[in-house]
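SEQUENCE-TO-STRUCTURE ENTRY
===========================
What this section holds: a protein sequence and its matching fold, both as plain text.
Question of interest: how does this chain fold, as expressed in backbone structure tokens?
***
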Amino acid sequence: MGGEITLSEKVVFEGNPSLHFTGEIEKEKGGGPSLHRYFSEPKDLSNYTELRLWIYPDFEDDTYTLLISLASQAGKKVKRYCIGMISSENAPNRKWTQVSFNIQPIPREKVVKLVGLFAPNHLEVYHDGEKVSFYLGEIELIEPVIPPQEPLGNMLTNYSMERGETEAPVDWVFVAYHEKIKEAGWTDEVSHWGKKSIFIDSALDNPMPVPGVHLSGIGFFTTTYRISLEPGRTYCLQGYYNASKKCGVMVGGYPSQLNVEKREFVQSITNVSHHITNVIAEKTLPATGGRWKHFSLEFTPPPAPYPYLARVYLIGTYLPGKVYFDDVALTTQTFQPQSPGLPKIVVPGEEFHLKFIVSDVKGNPVKKIEDFRLWINNRKLQTKAVFNSKEKVWTLLSSVPFDFTPSGFASIKAEVTIKGSKQVFEKERYFYVIPPTKGTFSFVVIADTHLHDYPEQDERTQRFVEAIRSINSLSPYFALHVGDLRGISNGQNDIHGRWWNEVYQDMISRLETPLYPVPGNHDTDKTFLGGASTMYYYEKLAGYPPFYSFDVDKFHFVGIDTTVPGIAGRQHNGGFTHPGQEEWLQKDLQDAQSQGKYIILFFHHPPYEGEQFPHYEDRERLLDVIYRNRINLVLLGHNHHDWVVIKKNPYVQEGGSLPELRLGPLPEGASEDYRDGPIEREKIEPYYHNPAYTIFEQTTTTSGFLMRGSRYFGFRYIWVRDGKIVWDDTIPLGFKVRTLEKREGYRKIEVINPKIKSYKMLPLSFRMKPGKYRAYKLEEAKKSLNLYQINKGKITEVWVSLDIGAGEKVIVEIKKEN
């Protein structure tokens, strides 16, 4: 079906003849005329971003619909691309109107013709045999006009949205005109750091699918103005969100030249400035379970001759649920603590140091900031910021107020102002506030949990949940994890990322004490992940450094990486090979020794020789570091059973009259020469705090699988009293301490010990109101139990030492004496 194109002086444009397109509707043949205006030769429109034309519709009926296309040469074929739609809504009949079209989403190197099409899907507005006619005046090609660079900083504040109910196809995103998003006002329904949120109803009248976007959604909010992004420059989109279902963030826009040779767009919209036609960066965000969480998306716009004109989109998914955002900012600086995944243990009244990295996208340190503020649980702290030119980091000096309550996890919010732009870092469970230790505290050691991808189908996860309950009932000050947090993956990296983002975070959130892990071979090995190393997930998603240290009282804890990742056939090997680790460790240990700290080293692979662990890279160098620095206690995992090896330190001559020992279970078929006997706490006690010996302690698997003579799952429980380790043993799963009754000055508890092992002087801690206390078994009320108590400010910490047999259940009462 064709038509005619002629010059006409019947309808003129600014005194000049117009180009007249005319034809006739033929419904029986499938539609109206397709009118083609060929150019004398192919035109290169690569440097143009917009086509503007003046149109004079001349139809018998005032209602019409017309599609405008450009056709490009592609090899021997000519392909047609729709660049927009003109209708009676945006260009009234018999009136000159200028209409603009974005032409960037199409190939523009060899444009051969302009096409006007009366599409069959719009035939309901026409009659068979009806004459269709329109005139074109001036046609103009526009080069990109780049607006001045907008100041980067907080672009969206206190905005929220509720996703509409219409379902969207997977892998499509729905967008709408900004004017259709109705603001319903401020609400206290969901607040962020004491601020109200703005609730936005994003249910759309006519949602429009945009291909090429991989987030599934319907509700969205976008910046009200476009921003200019330089190609090749790295940006960071960050902020906070609270979502009952998964949602997403996205940056979309146009460069001056877009390479779409392998990607065809058919764009049938009028005002493209309100729509996404090119995705620069996007990220799906998991549900937060009713909590605010920080998100960040680093991206670099691809090379282009001109800057990108872009907008930021906050997206709610097609799943029913509410999504709220706050403090969303697009920055060119990164602002984060050095160890974002590790909680910071702080004591009220004591000064703490918090190191932050503030750098530009090229990694250059930012040496000047205008303001630095710090909050803990909405309480602003007095803070001093100091820049260390040697380390190139900022250090915050502050302290938690004496009257800060309660003890336990606390959230942090830090705000820095650079060149008028505010950047915010926020994290839940960042601080862990403890009472003053005064030389007395407890901690646990978790080993080889081997959690899998799908916890609802995994008995290991159920065992770990049981272990968490037991750990929480003992109220330790913190927990160490000596590696193999996760098990064998199914080889898909997206599943592995899901595990760190969802499964692991869910498990750890149940632990009522801070966790300090080190990597094991299953956390980092390519062999188990289809060839992709997972140290990225361990460091980036969980936020854990491969090696680090922290202090509690006069104890210095050092975690290091002994994995040798990614080498088939050596996936179980240990090694002291992580780049930069040895130099860092030597300096860290020297600093701790100069302060008189008792050092505890923890890592995954046991380094001693023998059939326990025959393969180790740079074993002697690691042992030499341990012995030269007189480390007395090393905590280990990997072999899934309790095992203790005590070695004489070759560099210490005095106090070395005790024998070396190998204690642990006897594997099936092994002779008694394999060991010096079973593990008995009384045998090990003389070696603690004796620099002439190093105690290597392996802990049984907490929830993985049993091997090499292991009889139970469990974790290690260590009590420090008056600056000395006085109790150290493993606790099997099934052990429980339950509070039956609690009131001021009184506690009634039930202790259940599974049928595995008996304990003597097992320490149980309770935080009570200040006072002097007495403890006894319910059936032996006249016989007091061994009790140690220490006043820690607003509380008295009561330690009850209990003898309990295997399979025994005991009820204990703790009473304040008059």
Summary: The helical segments are 459-474, 493-509, 521-524, 535-541, 581-594, 619-628, 681-684. Residues 335-433 form a domain with the Immunoglobulin-like fold (CATH 2.60.40.10).
